Amino acid sequence: MKKKVLLFMLVAIFALATLTYGQEKPRIGVLRFTNTVAGTSFWAWNNKVATDLQDMLISELYSTKAFHVLERKEISAVLSEQDLSASGRVSKSTLVKMGKIKGAKYLIAGTVSAFEMSQKSGGKVRFKGLKLGGKKSKAYIAVDVKVIDTETGEIIDARTIEAKAKGSAIGSGLSLRNFDIGGSHAKKTPVGKAIRACIVYISEYLECSLAKIHHPKCMKRWDRMDEKRREKTKKSISLD
């Protein structure tokens, strides 16, 4: 009798593990980011910034190992390679199979809804006859994330993710008018750190929301953070 009970328990555990972890990873694609921060002279938004943020999120999502991340920017190059294979000019041993491109179940859209930076001048440092001014910087960014079901076009999830960073620098500071997210200098600034942190948070949230559907406990952290953000936002508004 005990052996039968033990066998039943082992089968049940195996079935639960298969149900939870044996499912196919969600297939997702990432759209280029958009920007709704009006009058931002400190950040000249352009297509490169939108693409940089898209690439950063793609990399972070792939690193979670929780998704099949589908490349959409280079789809034309993939189709060209398939067309070349179909032309008969490629050896049979290296032919690319047609009709194997996978479709995304979800599309991830990100919109920068808030971006702030402040600088305060600090003390001066002498170095080999030069006077360098120190600056203390703070940066804050908020991104509205939407998850879109490609079959229905319905928004199935939406969340605002925030991040902030601060630091000190010596010199004239960072020129955000020509800001390059991918630059090595930018990554070390409070702006770069806040942006990277926000992208990491987005990937962690999506992993919890889409890939861990059988683990609702992980959503408690994000619900607490969202509640705190909403309360802070309400307190900053004064109604007469």
Task: Map the helices and strands.
Layout: H1 2-21, E1 27-30, E2 34-35, H2 47-63, E3 68-69, H3 75-86, E4 106-127, E5 130-149, E6 155-170, H4 184-187, H5 190-211, H6 218-235
Parallel strand pairs: 1-3, 1-4, 2-4
Antiparallel strand pairs: 4-5, 5-6
Describe the overall structure.
Helices cover 39% and strands 28% of the residues. The protein is built from six helices and six strands. Helix 2 crosses helix 5. The longest helix is centred in the C-terminal third of the chain and has 22 residues.
Summarize the model shown.
The protein is 39% helix and 28% strand. The chain has six helices and six strands, in the order αββαβαβββααα.
Q: Rounded to an integer, what's the Rg over CA atoms?
A: 24 Å
Could you name the ranges where pLDDT drops below 50 across 5 or more consecutive residues?
Answer: 11-22, 125-132, 170-179
Number of strands: 6
Structural class assignment: alpha/beta
Quaternary structure state of the chains depicted:
single chain
Main beta sheet: strand number and arrangement? 6 strands, mixed
Q: Count up the helices.
A: 6
Average pLDDT for all residues = 74
> Approximately how much helix is present in the residues?
25-40%
SS strand fraction = 25-35%
Features:
39% helix; 240 residues; single chain; 6-stranded mixed β-sheet; alpha/beta; 28% strand
